[in-house]
Design brief:
With about 300 residues, the protein is an alpha/beta fold. It is built from 12 helices and 8 strands. An 8-stranded parallel β-barrel has the order 1-2-3-4-5-6-7-8, surrounded by 7 helices. The longest helix has 20 residues. The N and C termini lie far apart (about 50 Å). The mean pLDDT is about 95.
């Protein structure tokens, strides 16, 4: 099997419209893979929410990487980590890239806002941008640090989120691509893909473009393909569907003081065991442990 970095690079450069699905822990990463997706979006929002904190760097980068390690171990497809602003300056980015390569992560996405960041979809939130040359330095530092030639660095452009226009977005795109970015993620919070498509009309380079249509979800997927976009991220939908399901189940059990109304609507315990790969442990026990005696023996074997 191809290493995960090579899998991701092939996905990014396939020439087809490809997709990543959000995951936020080992279990959801496994579910994404079983659904048939070729890659995972390690969402900063989703990981933070699953930890019970806000998406403005309240979770430290080491706490995030602890989660990512479980995600990587639980799946055989590549993860692109949403690493916010890189958790600091160029030197923090260098340490981050080293650690991600050690964990077998396929790619990292870094956004051009100031640390600590605010989530891009928050209403009336401050969204200050990093200076172009400073952020380009982060991208160059990441590329200079990587040891695996297939590890990908994706530069996320927040110009539209911060209230700037197309010209600023294009200027940043050109600078980040020149600094070595393997792909560019252009973000928008409009309810239509207007800003994204305007960017694509002007962006004539061959650098792959990534989009996140959380707000402009009504845009038909073929529109992205026609525009020349390489990768679409479904960015937070397992988290949100899980929240809705848990809220419904908790409320029903609290109201009815019984499990009768939910048992047939939720996953079985056996399905949990399957996702945990308990069958593999059973085989390992048969291989490595002595046979179980019908009559329990004393510790000394008598």
């Amino acid at each position: 099997m191809l290493k995960k970095t090579s899998q991701f690079k092939s996905l990014l450069q396939s020439g087809n419209l490809e997709f990543l699905m959000e995951a936020h822990n080992g279990l959801s990463a496994k579910i994404v893979e079983e659904a048939g997706f070729k890659g995972i979006w390690g969402s900063g929002l989703a990981i933070s929410a699953a930890l019970g904190v806000r998406d403005n760097n309240e979770a430290s980068w080491t706490q995030v990487l602890d989660v990512v390690e479980f995600m990587s171990d639980a799946s055989s497809i590549p993860i692109m980590l949403d690493a916010d602003t890189g958790y600091g300056n160029f030197n923090n980015v260098r340490r981050l890239v080293k650690k991600l390569e050690q964990l077998g992560v396929g790619a990292v996405c870094i956004e051009d806002k100031l640390f600590p960041k605010n989530n891009s979809l928050l209403d009336n939130a401050r969204q200050p941008l990093e200076a172009i040359d400073v952020f380009a330095g982060k991208i160059k530092a990441a590329k200079d640090t990587q040891q695996d030639a297939d590890f990908c660095v994706v530069a996320r452009i927040e110009a539209f989120i911060a209230g700037w226009g197309l010209g600023e977005a294009l200027k940043r795109a050109e600078a980040y691509h020149a600094a070595g970015a393997d792909a560019l993620l252009i973000h928008s919070r409009l309810s239509t893909a207007e800003e994204i498509l305007a960017f694509m009309d002007e962006w004539k380079d061959t650098c792959p473009i990534v989009v996140v249509p959380t707000k402009y979800y009504q845009t038909p997927t073929p529109v992205f393909q026609k525009a020349g976009i390489s990768l679409v991220i479904w960015a937070n939908h397992l988290l949100r569907s899980g929240i809705a399901a848990m809220q419904k189940t908790a409320a029903l059990i609290h109201e009815q003081q019984s499990l009768l109304g939910v048992e047939n609507e939720i996953s079985s315990v056996q399905e949990v065991f399957r996702l945990q790969n308990n069958a593999e442990l059973k085989l390992a026990e048969e291989k490595y442990l002595p046979p179980v005696s019908v009559h329990p023996e004393t510790p000394d074997g008598h």
